[in-house]
Input
Amino acid sequence: MPYALEQLDTPFVAVDVDIVEDNLRRMQQQAEAAGLKLRPHTKTHKQPGLAQRQVELGAHGITVAKLDEAEVMLKAGLTDILIAYPLVGRAKAHRLALLMTRGLEPTISLDSLEALKTVALAGQLAGRSVNVLAEVDTGFHRCGLNGSALVELALTIHGTPGVRFGGLMSFAGHISGHRDVDRITRLIDEEDGMMHDLVRQITAHHVPVDDVSVGGTILSHHLQRLRTATEVRPGIYIFNDMGIVTAHAATIDQCAARVWATIVSQPEAHRLVLDSGSKMLSTDGPIDGCYGHIVEHPDWRIVRLSEEHAVVELPPNAAPAAIGSLVSIIPNHICTVMNLQNTVTAVRQGSVVASWPIMARGGTQ
Ligand SMILES: Cc1ncc(COP(=O)(O)O)c(C=O)c1O
Output
């Protein structure tokens, strides 16, 4: 017998399964319409069941960041996995090789000779070569190379036994945080141009570039602009969040995951406290000074978090709030919120339908 969401103890995360399904189908259709492979980043949901659904709907494989996450996904039967993170060191080589002997068909992105050595050792240990993508820095300035250093790395990967040069990988993290769509599309066009140039330079050495893999959700809202990519890796699109809404890449109605919280105190007319602190909402940067969007009261502002308290500022002349009543919050960044949960509550039309364990949470290695 389904029961109403409001009967649950707070705080908790609820995920609307119909919105999830719509989000998955829409992105799959958009990728297909643009002639691109979809390889969703599963760091957002960290749940093998949802990864399987993404593949069922047509995804060409999945992305993870860590071997811990790859192991959880592999146990559930997902074998075609891009580990979009440089693996460095002998321990990682041995672990990657072990997962390969259990059926993992990995692709690894990297940007250094040390990481290349690690992956080549794994290939040797497992007795088959590993597909490798050279990571390009297109402006986010995290990992990745560009220009002649990138081309040199690509040629070195191509000439290294135990690995196969599969192409290029980038993550345009620098486009998040912008609201101006013209600015966002300009940055996407710049990235596309860089990838195009690098492909031209590498193929001039008679080295084929099979795949150009780009991410994430904001970029994937503009797939028609991409001339060079062969594959996209959005992650957040499955749930969406305020970061994606702010970039005009989703609407509030397309946000599938909310933190439900109780008003536990109202010490002053203009200030109240919710029971969803940083242990629920995470401390990821505020947007416009707020740590999430309160759906029922869009003019209330979550201005401060302690571990167990969210301090909310009310507008002048706000009606008194009822201590004990519930509100729901769309987080700024859903990936970090998911990583803090043991389980999330799946709901359909306001009724609880399941409890989903976040099986790959906390997988840091
Ligand atoms: C390498 C990489 N690819 C893809 C993604 C997915 O992007 P998004 O979270 O914007 O959907 C991420 C997110 O952090 C990432 O780090």
Remarks:
- Residues 252-357 form a domain with the Lyase, Ornithine Decarboxylase; Chain A, domain 1 fold (CATH 2.40.37.20).
- The first strand starts at residue 12 and ends at 16.
